[in-house]
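2024-03-11 09:14:02 INFO receiving multi-entity request
2024-03-11 09:14:02 INFO entity count = two
2024-03-11 09:14:03 INFO echoing inputs for audit
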Amino acid sequence: MDPFFYLVIVAGAIAGASCGLLGVYLVALRLAFIGIFISHTAMAGSVYAHLVGLDPTVGPVVVSSLASMCLAGIRPGRSRLDPNVALAILFSLMLGLTFLGIGLVQGSRSEILGLLWGSILFVRAGSVVVIAVAAVVFAVFALVFNKELKVLLFSRTIASATGVHETFVYALFLGLAGIVLAVNLPLVGGLMIFSLITNPAAAAYQICRGHRAVVVASTLFGVLSAVGGFIASYYLNLPTGACIVLTSTLLFALAALSRTLARRVD
Amino acid sequence: MTAGSVGLSGIDVRRAGRTILQIDGLTIPAGSFVGILGTNGAGKTTLLKICAGLIGPTRGQVRIDDVDLVRLSSWRKCGLRQRIGYIPQSTEYNAELPFTLREIIAMGRTSVRSLLSRLSRQDYAIVDEWIDRLGLSDRRNQTFRSLSGGQQQKALIARAMTQDPELLMLDEPCANLDFYWKQQISGMIEQLYRETHVTVLMVSHETSVLPPACERIVLMADGRIVADGGADEVLSPQVLRKAYPGDFQTVLIGGRRYTVGGV
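2024-03-11 09:21:47 INFO inference complete, emitting structure
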């Protein structure tokens, strides 16, 4: 294997790990759709940053973290709006803004459009450092607020009624989720991020007992999906993105099968 | 225990241009056990959520130990709510996640510990004490989702008790349980009340699950309190008619009150 691909594998492992970890919370909060939403929000941020002459990496991070924090305002039981419906509405708003912005861009649009699909094979060392820092920051957050996050995942009503600082922790979580997704977007692409968030976490929830086991398994499954998918695509000469998505789906299928078999044995 | 009183005055909750709850005044002294009874959609859960500050009233005051919950900042509200043990209906928690029983019960200690701090060995000792006390020792490391409905309810009550609450709010704790578990959970609530004298607010649509210790009942219909008084008085056919159409009588069997219709 060409040494250039080692960087791709490292980038894939970090992206897989951070998406796998993030997925533990997004899946339990039933916000897996946030991946698609954030990708379009980040894209809108990038388009408008490009239009006003700013660094196109700053726009997505700021816009997507702010947009995802808006979701913190939607509270179960208080709002008539389901968070997923709110996501769908915000998603269509971002989609409209993105295409409006693209319409206003002068010259080549290929760089902007590339954000949706990602380009892990063209990764640069600088980008790997950025996603690694975002992954570490999110992991530290998950560790520091572990006890609050667990209550939040189990029940936002209980968290709120019993004095857990759930609004603060939830808003902080959504802001960081926005950042992690936005920095991974140019590498992984909006569509693949959705699979890397959902499948490893859903697989871990099938087979694990206890929150710590879920966190470890989902992170490992994320790494396995990204690295395994890349290696499979390299040796089988198949599209990388498709192999990563299919590997993560296969992991989920195996986990679901093992849970079904374990129940039958019981 | 002297803390844990609740006072509502001039409460009006409006949603979509419609009044869903209107309460002129309600005082619950510390250490009392109050049952909230009423028809489906009468506003029982809304009343409980108002008391816990989960729903903000359109106007009015919600006082816990003479502190107005409505006017507090969200940060200070958290401090006050640490004294509330809240057990919601099953639709309001995610029972499918693979949390272990011990993890669920330890969540009660999260309320009393500050942000950035971790649960200590002492916290887990309290958790384990409640697990043993409620007879769940052999289920300690099982997942919450693998427990029966009755065991899950026990775990949620244990979670609330590890907070060492001054106020215990229970929203239909015996709903969807078989008669054995209804009696078990109701008996457990009674025992906890007698041992700790925590203030208890218990929403139910069945009179038989309100334990004998529940000497006061608030009867609700159409978002209003239609009767408030001693259990025997409120459960009389004349008073029940204010909330339920038809004739109902309450019979006392083994200290529990069973309300039956068509007698």
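2024-03-11 09:21:48 INFO post-check: Chain B has a mean pLDDT of 91.
2024-03-11 09:21:48 INFO post-check: Residues 96-164 of chain B form one domain.
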